[in-house]
């Protein structure tokens, strides 16, 4: 048994092992020798490597299934209701994306001098008669800066709940081949 928190990096580790075994198999697929010389074959055969590769792929698929199942079945409380971990993960991503965009909008000034030429409504406009052009925000940048901070705090809170759940959920997977001494 391992926790969901352990399963996620373990899956990445198994994926790296699969990549390594695929490369090793290709490397050991042939040996180069001088004509007339007897080839020296590696100790590990293609069949041995392929068997390890098949086991690692099967473990990866099983672990991926168990992670997905846990993420669908387990829930956390959010906004007064229980939502699945998969929904919580997606909501946290969306909150972070929205927080980031709100913070960018919050960095703008309410009124700025526009560049000498700019594009608006599909056509180029140029400064005429020496008058300065200004760009006026159609929203309150301070309000968006504050909203960005609030959304980021909410994303952090939800991420904390997800992380706590990940540490409390047990998954029935024998990780001895990949973890330990």
Tell me the number of helical segments per DSSP (H or I, 4 or more residues long): 4
Name the beta content range: 5-15%
Which shape, going by the Cα principal axes?
elongated
**Rg from alpha-carbon coordinates:** 28 Å
Q: Mind explaining what this structure looks like?
A:
- The chain is of the alpha+beta class.
- The protein has one domain (2-29, 44-114, 135-171).
- The chain has helices spanning 4-27, 46-73, 85-107, 141-168; strands at residues 2-3, 75-78, 81-84, 111-113, 117-120, 123-126, 134-136, 170-171.
- The strands form four sheets. Strands 1-8 form a two-stranded antiparallel sheet. The protein has a two-stranded antiparallel sheet with strand order 2-3.
- The longest helix has 28 residues, at 46-73.
- The model has no long low-confidence stretch (mean pLDDT 91).
Task: Write a brief structural summary.
Helices cover 57% and strands 14% of the residues.
How are the SSEs ordered, and which strands pair?
Elements (H helix, E strand, L loop, with lengths): L1 E2 H24 L18 H28 L1 E4 L2 E4 H23 L3 E3 L3 E4 L2 E4 L7 E3 L4 H28 L1 E2 L10
Antiparallel strand pairs: 1-8, 2-3, 4-7, 5-6
Helix pairs in contact: 1-2, 3-4
